């Protein structure tokens, strides 16, 4: 609060100024823009411009703030919210905060803000006007050159667009053809696969049967041999005493192989061949060892195996027939086998080959007919897959073309040169790469994983021209933070290039990109209204 004494003092000093100065009127109107001069009439009381109060005219520019809006002190720094107008003849009139008035710093180019101080301000308005004009001209020239390039891009985009549409139609037509071709090929493939699968299944079945037979024979041979070995007294029975010698069959290691334990295995005091086959053999075959006999590998006579396999099959066929003696069978079948060799080989005759597989599960080679069917089916499959691949390729082409035509490349396609283009910006630690309408990445220069800064989102420029900014969002999330994003701001330039990348707020990147596509026809023609027409 001001004391009334001080107020009086100020009043007196103002009156003195008015009395002393010959050009009082001019002085008190300092800082008033021409448009508002009519509101400052020296013969009338002054109404504050906000209407808050009315004061004697002497209170205007008396260096004491009377109006709440500061309108009584346009030419002094008395009001904290006062506005001072500098006319700046030859340049542009501007309004400055009135506390810049008389602060010994030249703020107006015409120096009027320092009228009461000892500072002599040089009038720089002419120079400024020249400089500003030069800048505007440079800017205009840049936009003019840029617009020329932009026109080329737009012209090119029309050609590209027409070409794209033509190609799209072509691809769509060929896709139609390919798809019906694919159907035919699929039909052929399926037809070829039916006999192929039948033959393969048949082959597999035969082989499995043969394998089962071989295993049965091996089982029987082993069993017979074991029985003969065990039956040391040749009475066609295996007794407890005979089996008891095989202590390796003792399952508990605590005591001896007792008669009782042996009886449990045999299920009787002695077993004949058939009972041995049915109840004993499987129990002991895994642990059984020959007694005191050096192990001699006797090569298997192929003919024997073949013969016995055939015999076995025959025996199985002739159900109920009396069981032959092993040696009888071998002899009997020997001749038949020899005979067979000169005729079409029976499936079993080829078991010569299969014998090798008796202990592994590899399916033997297919017969020629099956091979032929597989070959035919393979051919049909290859043809089908060829067409399938072509369908896939054409579909991808179509997708690509559609994706390209769906991109919003500006009102006139001025951003069409950006399609499928990437631009790098080298910084100390990182390379920033923006792939237009796709994504933006931060690639560490010292190696290490690149980080997605954002995926193409949308144009986000101001409503007057949304094509001045684009946004890439939903990038990799920051540690303990939000997903990264990037805003690209376009400005007129002769070449397409990134000129700056920053991270003004954490995880929100800002890129400045120069491109002819952002150049402006109105600026280029110099007809843009920029408020400087008066000089
Ligand atoms: C005015 O210009 C002169 C010479 O051009 C310079 O020496 C002087 O410092 C300037 N005055 C101000 C206030 O800038
Ligand atoms: C049992 O027969 C085999 C040959 O068949 C013979 O080597 C063995 O000595 C005979 N053993 C007895 C106890 O007769
Ligand atoms: C052993 O028993 C099986 C049935 O469990 C039978 O098929 C096979 O022919 C028998 N072997 C001999 C050699 O009797
Ligand atoms: Ca005042
Ligand atoms: Ca000043």
TrEMBL record:
Region entry Disordered, spans: 316-367
UniProt keyword Ribosomal protein, yes or no: no
Residue ranges with Basic and acidic residues bias: 316-327, 352-362
Domain MRH: 420-521
Keyword Cell inner membrane in record: no
Example of a GO biological process term: N-glycan processing
SUPFAM superfamilies membership: EF-hand, Mannose 6-phosphate receptor domain
GO MF terms, alphabetically ordered: calcium ion binding
Annotated Acidic residues bias: 328-338
Top-level taxon of the source organism: Eukaryota
Coiled-coil region: 161-198, 377-404
UniProt cross-references to InterPro entries, sorted A to Z: EF-hand-dom_pair, EF_hand_dom, Gtb1-like, Man6P_isomerase_rcpt-bd_dom_sf, MRH_dom, PRKCSH, PRKCSH_N
Signal peptide as annotated in the record: 1-22
Pfam families hit by this protein: PRKCSH-like, PRKCSH_1
Regions that span the bilayer: none
Gene Ontology CC entries for this record: glucosidase II complex
UniProt keywords, alphabetically: Coiled coil, Disulfide bond, Endoplasmic reticulum, Signal
Residue stretches making up the EF-hand domain: 218-253
The protein's name: Glucosidase 2 subunit beta
């Amino acid at each position: 609060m001001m004391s009334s004494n001080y107020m009086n003092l100020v009043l007196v000093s103002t009156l003195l100024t008015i009395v002393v100065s010959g050009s009082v009127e001019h002085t008190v109107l300092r800082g008033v823009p021409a448009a508002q001069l009519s509101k400052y009439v020296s013969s009338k009381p002054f109404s504050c411009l906000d209407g808050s109060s009315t004061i004697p005219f002497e209170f205007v520019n008396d260096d004491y703030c009377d109006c709440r809006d500061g309108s009584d002190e346009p030419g002094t720094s008395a009001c904290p919210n006062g506005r001072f107008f500098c006319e700046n003849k030859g340049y542009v009139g501007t309004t400055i905060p009135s506390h810049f008035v008389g602060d010994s710093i030249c703020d107006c180019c015409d120096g009027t803000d320092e009228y009461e101080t000892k500072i002599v301000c040089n009038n720089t308005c002419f120079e400024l006007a020249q400089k500003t004009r030069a800048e505007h001209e440079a800017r205009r020239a840049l936009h003019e050159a840029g617009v020329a390039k932009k026109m080329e891009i737009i012209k090119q985009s029309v050609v590209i667009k027409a070409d794209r549409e033509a190609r799209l139609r072509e691809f769509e037509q060929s896709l139609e053809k390919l798809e019906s071709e694919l159907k035919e090929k699929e039909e052929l493939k399926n037809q070829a696969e039916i006999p192929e699968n039948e033959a393969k299944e048949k082959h597999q079945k035969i082989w499995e049967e043969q394998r089962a037979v071989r295993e049965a024979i091996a089982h029987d041979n082993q069993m017979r041999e074991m029985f003969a070995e065990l039956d040391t007294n040749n009475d066609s029975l295996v007794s407890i005493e005979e089996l008891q010698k095989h202590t390796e069959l003792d399952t508990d290691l605590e005591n001896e192989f007792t008669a009782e334990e042996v009886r449990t295995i045999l299920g009787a005091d002695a077993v004949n061949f058939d009972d041995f086959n049915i109840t004993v053999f499987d129990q002991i075959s895994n642990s059984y060892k020959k007694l005191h006999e050096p192990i001699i590998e006797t090569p298997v006579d192929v003919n024997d195996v073949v013969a016995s396999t055939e015999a076995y099959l025959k025996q199985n066929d002739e159900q109920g027939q009396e069981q032959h003696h092993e040696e009888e069978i071998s002899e009997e079948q020997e001749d038949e086998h020899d005979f067979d060799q000169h005729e079409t080989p029976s499936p079993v005759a080829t078991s010569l080959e299969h014998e090798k597989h008796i202990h592994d599960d590899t399916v033997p080679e297919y017969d020629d007919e099956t091979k032929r069917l597989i070959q035919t089916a393979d051919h049909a499959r290859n043809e089908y897959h060829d067409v399938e691949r072509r369908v896939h390729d054409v579909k991808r082409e179509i997708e690509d073309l559609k994706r390209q035509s769906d991109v919003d490349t500006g009102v006139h396609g001025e951003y069409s040169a950006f399609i499928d283009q990437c631009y790098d910006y080298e910084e100390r630690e990182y390379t920033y790469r923006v792939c237009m309408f796709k994504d933006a990445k931060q690639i560490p220069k010292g190696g290490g994983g690149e980080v997605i800064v954002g995926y193409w989102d949308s144009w986000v420029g101001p409503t007057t021209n949304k094509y001045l900014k684009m946004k890439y969002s939903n990038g990799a999330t920051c540690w303990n933070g939000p997903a990264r994003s990037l805003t690209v701001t376009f400005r007129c330039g002769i070449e397409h290039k990134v000129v700056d990348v920053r991270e003004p707020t954490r995880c929100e990147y800002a890129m400045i990109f120069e491109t002819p596509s952002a150049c402006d026809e109105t600026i280029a023609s110099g007809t843009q209204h920029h408020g400087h027409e008066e000089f």
